[in-house]
Amino acid sequence: MVRPHPERRPRSARLLAGLAVGAVLLAGCGAPDAPTPRFSGDFTEFPLSAGAQLIAPPEEPPPATETSACAAHASLRPGTPSLGGTLGDIRARGTVVVAVDQNTNLFSFRDPTTGALTGFGVDLAREVARDLLGDPTKVEFRPLGTDDGAEMLAHRDADMVVRPAALPCEAPQGLAFSTVYLEASRRLVVRHGSGISEPADLARRRVCTHHDPASVSALSRIAPKATILAVPDWDDCLMALQQRQVDAIAGAAVLAGLVAQDPNLEIVGPETDSAEYAIGVAPGNDDLVRFVNGTLERLRTDGTWTVLYDRWLSSLGPAPGPPVPQYQD
Q: CB burial class (10 A; 0-12, 13-18, 19+) of residue 243?
């Protein structure tokens, strides 16, 4: 009896099966997979922002003083606008060119919805344009870096500088100033429940402030035992506090914009000495200085200053009234 031959698979099927087995063998003999990279650290320590500087407290802190020794800042008295000079150049151009910091919330920042520059300082610049050119929108804003803007003024890249940096006791070279348009008490921003309520609580803690001389000097004076983190941008202070790299932020008018960005923060501390803010102009442009001071005088007397304060800085407290101008002539 002849047994039937078992059914054979087609040659093509047998060939495909062989190729599959070969592929598996080749894969097994190939180069091994790259090892999973190893990471060191647990990512609990964030790097400090670019340009940040840590300033250790002195071994023997100087005697504490309650107020700043700065003399009142005086400027030129408002005068009759000239037809030529800097004012004539601006009128011929048709716009006022103003250098501003563009990321300080509530002072000069871009509205996240419209992208337009807005804030207390921006509104001041627009009021100058209103008086000089008859239209508050005729302002060309140019970004200001981390310096004081003196180089931009020297190269005629801007007519004015409006920045949220307090005036130092000694006016920096390369800048002339308007009368003081804002005076605010230096206080602290901390996290809710931090246990910090006054400068005395900052001993052996790390505190952030702007790297401008006036801010660093004031913090060294009111908290001589604190370690200072000096940064080129106030938003760097906000990030450092949120990442728990510092225990507090020390400042003045800019604190309103910081707490507005984070509901977990609050302004605390008694009012220490005051920070003063003025508009910067290139030296020698006396006609522009006098004109700007005329606009600031109008804002003080017609109520516009209080309107702007209530719009942008009310979290600092009720409007204290505009600072009384000091004139040198």
A: middle
Q: Within 10 A of 38 (CB to CB), how many other CB atoms are there? A: 5
DSSP H or E segment with residue 312: helix 304-312
Cα dihedral 139, 142, 146, 148 in deg (nearest 10):
-50
What pLDDT score was predicted for residue 319?
87
Side chain identity, residue 229 = L
- What local confidence, expressed as pLDDT, does residue 59 receive? 79
What 10-14 contacts at long range (C-beta under 8 Å, 24+ apart), as own/partner pairs, is none
* CA 111 vs CA 118, 160, 293, 327: distances in Å: 7, 22, 28, 36
Question: What's the pLDDT score for residue 35?
Answer: 53
| DSSP per position, 41-77 | S-S-SPPPPTT-EEEPPPSSPPPP-SS--PPPP-BPP
Four-way CATH pick for 85-182+277-316: 3.40.190.10, 3.20.20.80, 3.90.1570.10, 3.90.1150.10:
3.40.190.10
What DSSP line would sit under 207-222, residue for residue? EEEESSHHHHHHHHHH
Query: Along the chain (329 residues), what's the average pLDDT of each consecutive run of 10 residues?
Result: 44 44 44 49 65 88 54 85 87 96 92 93 98 97 84 94 86 86 95 95 96 91 95 93 96 94 94 90 95 97 97 90 93
Please tell me the distance from the alpha carbon of residue 186 to that of residue 328, in angstroms, as a whole number.
26
